[in-house]
Amino acid sequence: MTKQTLANHIAQMPIYDTHEHLITPAEYVASAPDIIAALFGLNAYIQHDLISAGCSYTTLAAFLDPANPDIAARWHLIAPYWADCQHTGYAEAVRLSASILYSIDTLSAAALVAAQPRQQAYTQPGQYQYLLEQVANLATIQIDAFTWEAPAGAGDSRVYQYDINVCNMVNGSIDFVELATDVGFAITNLADYARAIQHVITYNAPQACAIKTQHAYNRTLAWQLPDEAAVVSVFEKKMRGAHLGELEACRIGDWALDQVARHAATLKLPIKIHTGHFAGNRTMPIDWVRPGQLSALIKQHPDTTFVLMHIGYPYQHELLSMAKHYANVYVDLCWAWSINPRASSEFVRQWIHSVPINKLFGFGGDAFLPTQTVGFAAQTRQWLTRTLSAEVAEGYLSEAEAIQIAQQLLHDNQHRLFGQG
Ligand SMILES: [Zn+2]
Questions:
Q1: How many domains does the chain contain in total?
Q2: Most buried residue among 8, 282, 323, 376 by CB atoms closer than 10 A?
Q3: Beta carbons of 403 and 9 less than 8 angstroms apart
């Protein structure tokens, strides 16, 4: 009975979701994703496993083509690749969405065709909120819309909160003309740029839950405090419109991240940083994504809270050590359960026995569509139940302690750091 009680608690508790890229409710209704898009579309991670299994981009595009109403024919294109992917974490979340939302036991052409009317019903006004708040049972949802400010038409701000995304400052690609227009003053020297960064952060802070950057997709995570003269020289080169080399982009990016980290400390806004594995295919330099390379930044800013995302997979052991050592390092399991659920399970078990439990966040689906977040949330509930049940079964935790940890990982730790919800 012990396991059952823990399982019930995890199955029923509202989750504080720290990371999604969800489109707005209005965009969801307007785009009316069909059954294939609902499960496999709009940047769904399962696409990357299908490509990895050998599917071509042409076949994938034909499978996803919303202009073709022949759902069965589209499924047949992908079925052989699905067969090879169906047991990965990404696919497990797809299967859970299919089961929960459309009562599909096994994905097939017939099952998808039969589910299409139900998906059409899920695209009606109000269904976006129903899927996320009722079906997935999410209390708070933090969203990175890849912008500084919350998008027009965002959902109720008591539930839907937004990050200030500063990635283009940190990867050095920021357009000074656009930035000047946004902040309302000219940018002619480095001091102006510093003032613009401050403006972007302080102006958006009252509505934001965090600052976010995923610059590991464009440059190494390695950070070092640059010499001011070197930054001025890169700034002037950028002002002349010249292309920046990799090292130069890192230099002005490292300087910008230092500025951002100072404002984050003053405003008490955590900085979320993508660490570890890339979404997509054909792009990842594995040495760029190692989270240990952020140590100098974290040491330099002891009053800034850093949330290192996706457990830095496959370098998750570095985060066990960093979170144990630095009081200002938190770690987020967002997306990690679906990248590799078994590794994430083992990571949580190692964390329990080595790092204070208040600094680990348990869930973020990292999805663009609510139909997909439903599957990711269910996957997290299942795997966290398995993980904590194993701790109880092996005698490390009592059932009451396991329930307390579940409550902290899925809700209370996030609430304590970010407030609200
Ligand atoms: Zn993300």
A1: 2
A2: 376
A3: yes
